[in-house]
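ARCHIVE CARD
Drawer: 12
Card no.: 0347
Subject: one protein chain, sequence and derived structure
Cross-reference: see card 0346
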Amino acid sequence: GAPEQHLQNMYTAAGQKLLSGTWSSEVGKWVIDYSQRHEFCYLVEGHIVLTNSDGEETEFKKGDAFVIPVGFKGSWEVLEPVTKYYVIYKVD
């Protein structure tokens, strides 16, 4: 899907390897590939499901914090409009 999304990067450091800010999205689902980054997320609002390439689903809701580790492949599905704080660390 191609839901409406908004990104506000608030901090960039270490040669653009470290990023943080806020992100929001309307309902939708898309494929994700974290082959070159780690991401810490804290959901301020909403409800999502992450599904890995083996089909295992993990749900997160408002108030949840989690890390998507480097190497994760699968899908991100927004079930209720979501806003998150994020910190991304890019690896080579």
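Annotation on reverse: The radius of gyration is 13 Å. The chain has a mean pLDDT of 96.
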